[in-house]
Amino acid sequence: MAKKKLGLEDLGGFVFSTNDDFDENTYAEDTHKDYLKPEEQRLEAHFSNKGRGGKTVTIIKGFEGTEEDLISLGKLLKKKCGVGGSTKDGEIIIQGDDREKIMQLLKNEGYNVKRIGG
Protein backbone atom coordinates (compact mmCIF):
# COMPACT_ATOMS: atom_id res chain seq x y z
CA MET A 1 0.00 0.00 0.00
CA ALA A 2 1.35 3.41 -0.96
CA LYS A 3 2.06 6.05 1.67
CA LYS A 4 -0.46 8.88 1.66
CA LYS A 5 0.73 12.39 0.96
CA LEU A 6 0.01 14.55 4.00
CA GLY A 7 1.13 18.02 3.05
CA LEU A 8 3.12 20.24 0.74
CA GLU A 9 6.38 18.96 2.24
CA ASP A 10 5.55 15.51 0.84
CA LEU A 11 5.45 16.91 -2.70
CA GLY A 12 9.22 17.30 -2.78
CA GLY A 13 9.71 20.90 -1.74
CA PHE A 14 7.77 22.55 -4.55
CA VAL A 15 6.77 26.15 -3.94
CA PHE A 16 3.53 27.21 -5.56
CA SER A 17 3.44 30.97 -5.95
CA THR A 18 1.95 33.37 -8.45
CA ASN A 19 4.20 36.15 -7.17
CA ASP A 20 7.11 36.75 -9.59
CA ASP A 21 9.15 38.45 -6.83
CA PHE A 22 8.83 35.48 -4.45
CA ASP A 23 12.08 34.65 -2.67
CA GLU A 24 12.05 31.33 -0.83
CA ASN A 25 14.90 32.32 1.50
CA THR A 26 13.06 35.41 2.71
CA TYR A 27 9.97 33.34 3.42
CA ALA A 28 11.97 30.78 5.42
CA GLU A 29 13.45 33.53 7.61
CA ASP A 30 10.02 35.05 8.32
CA THR A 31 8.61 31.77 9.66
CA HIS A 32 11.38 31.46 12.28
CA LYS A 33 10.61 33.38 15.46
CA ASP A 34 12.57 33.75 18.64
CA TYR A 35 10.38 32.34 21.38
CA LEU A 36 10.67 33.11 25.05
CA LYS A 37 12.55 30.79 27.38
CA PRO A 38 10.48 29.06 30.08
CA GLU A 39 11.83 31.46 32.74
CA GLU A 40 10.56 34.46 30.75
CA GLN A 41 7.06 33.16 30.11
CA ARG A 42 4.03 34.06 32.23
CA LEU A 43 1.54 31.20 32.22
CA GLU A 44 -1.92 31.35 33.77
CA ALA A 45 -3.67 28.36 35.39
CA HIS A 46 -7.44 28.74 35.02
CA PHE A 47 -10.27 26.60 36.40
CA SER A 48 -13.33 26.10 34.23
CA ASN A 49 -16.42 23.96 33.89
CA LYS A 50 -18.38 26.08 31.43
CA GLY A 51 -19.41 24.43 28.19
CA ARG A 52 -18.17 21.04 29.30
CA GLY A 53 -21.29 19.44 30.72
CA GLY A 54 -20.34 20.39 34.28
CA LYS A 55 -16.98 18.62 34.12
CA THR A 56 -14.05 20.52 35.56
CA VAL A 57 -10.86 21.27 33.66
CA THR A 58 -7.67 23.19 34.27
CA ILE A 59 -6.65 25.46 31.39
CA ILE A 60 -3.08 26.69 30.96
CA LYS A 61 -2.95 29.91 28.93
CA GLY A 62 -0.18 32.25 27.82
CA PHE A 63 2.28 29.75 26.31
CA GLU A 64 4.55 31.28 23.67
CA GLY A 65 6.40 28.77 21.55
CA THR A 66 6.04 26.28 18.76
CA GLU A 67 3.05 24.00 18.41
CA GLU A 68 5.35 21.02 19.00
CA ASP A 69 6.58 22.50 22.30
CA LEU A 70 2.99 23.13 23.38
CA ILE A 71 2.02 19.55 22.59
CA SER A 72 5.04 18.10 24.40
CA LEU A 73 4.36 20.25 27.49
CA GLY A 74 0.72 19.12 27.45
CA LYS A 75 1.80 15.48 27.22
CA LEU A 76 4.16 15.94 30.15
CA LEU A 77 1.44 17.47 32.33
CA LYS A 78 -1.12 14.81 31.39
CA LYS A 79 1.36 12.02 32.09
CA LYS A 80 2.48 13.42 35.47
CA CYS A 81 -1.13 14.03 36.59
CA GLY A 82 -2.42 10.71 35.22
CA VAL A 83 -5.35 12.35 33.44
CA GLY A 84 -6.50 13.16 29.92
CA GLY A 85 -6.62 16.45 28.14
CA SER A 86 -5.84 18.23 24.91
CA THR A 87 -3.91 21.09 23.38
CA LYS A 88 -5.64 23.51 21.03
CA ASP A 89 -5.76 27.20 20.22
CA GLY A 90 -2.52 27.79 22.13
CA GLU A 91 -3.97 26.39 25.36
CA ILE A 92 -3.40 23.21 27.34
CA ILE A 93 -6.60 21.70 28.72
CA ILE A 94 -6.17 19.15 31.53
CA GLN A 95 -9.13 17.19 32.87
CA GLY A 96 -9.92 17.78 36.53
CA ASP A 97 -9.02 20.51 39.02
CA ASP A 98 -5.35 19.72 39.61
CA ARG A 99 -4.15 23.32 39.52
CA GLU A 100 -1.81 23.06 42.47
CA LYS A 101 -0.08 19.97 41.10
CA ILE A 102 0.11 21.42 37.58
CA MET A 103 1.47 24.72 38.86
CA GLN A 104 4.18 22.88 40.80
CA LEU A 105 5.11 20.80 37.74
CA LEU A 106 5.34 23.94 35.59
CA LYS A 107 7.51 25.69 38.20
CA ASN A 108 9.81 22.66 38.23
CA GLU A 109 10.13 23.03 34.44
CA GLY A 110 11.15 26.68 34.92
CA TYR A 111 7.88 28.45 33.99
CA ASN A 112 6.35 31.32 35.95
CA VAL A 113 2.74 30.38 36.72
CA LYS A 114 -0.07 32.45 38.20
CA ARG A 115 -3.31 31.03 39.59
CA ILE A 116 -6.38 32.70 38.05
CA GLY A 117 -9.92 32.34 39.35
CA GLY A 118 -11.52 30.47 42.26
TrEMBL record:
SUPFAM superfamilies: eIF1-like (SSF55159). GO terms for molecular function: translation initiation factor activity. Gene3D superfamilies: SUI1-like domain (3.30.780.10). Residues 50-110 form the SUI1 domain. It comes from the Bacteria. Keywords: Initiation factor, Protein biosynthesis, Translation regulation. InterPro entries: DENR/SUI1_TIF, SUI1, SUI1_arc_bac, SUI1_dom_sf. Belongs to the SUI1 family. PANTHER family: DENSITY-REGULATED PROTEIN, DENSITY-REGULATED PROTEIN HOMOLOG. This is Translation initiation factor.
